[in-house]
Amino acid sequence: MQSEQNSLTPTTTGAKIAFESRYASSPNEVKTMTTEGLRQAFLIEKLFVADEFRWTLSFFDRYLTGGIMPVSGVVSLEAPEQLKAAYFLERRELGMINVGGPGRVVADGVAYDLEYKEALYIGQGTKSVEFMSHDEDKPARFYLNSTPAHTSCPTRKVSRQEANKLEMGSLETANNRTINQMLINKVLPTCQLQMGMTELKTGSVWNTMPAHTHDRRMEVYFYFEVPEGQAVCHFMGQPQETRHIWMQNEQAVISPNWSIHAGAGTSNYTFIWGMAGENLDYGDMDFCAIPDLR
Asked: Per the database entry, which stretches of residues form a coiled coil (predicted)?
């Protein structure tokens, strides 16, 4: 088994915490996995439940992937018992992007309003974090990434307009896309967490070609804006030993540092990428030529 039993416990504000651990897998182990084995090890199927924090801890760089959809009022971020911390950000940093209706995050008494596709970084040492939606009929859905941190960086909101934008690919190769670098060192300081959002244009379905690995970082992809009835086929594994996982809207997938991470959809879509590891160099990638993929 690749995961521990989920635990569901109430927080002080009535929100619940669902927590799951995923053990690190080696390339040799992944070669032998069935479809179901791959999905259990790497796919995060459900991130948004009303008033419930849902966390998946990967033992690759102790990366936490989560989501919160506040509906019944204010929900407070509490440290899951498995972290053995006095408060969630005692030894961690936190990044998020809102993929739902307008919402608000209050960090140590300072309020930040987040519209659709806006991001917020909260630094290590922040003791109180609260989430709420402006309209419970159109609740915010905060997609959350958290990594261990050894230094504190300032909390800051980043809008889409403030992102560092890269126009990549072409319609001819079906990968014309805009990369929005949001929580990276070109925009603001972080300890090790980096997050951004890639939007594929109509008629384009491929990310990210040429495929690559980076031994110095692991990554998590969250696919959304996948139209109803459509799906994304996510490719992973060593460049000469690839595997695939079919993914639906608003699902995430863990990518080990030794694995490629690419996808092709039956429609265009958007995905959020998050990274953690030794360095903050976005361009630190070991590319694999497309004809060499197996």
From this structure: none
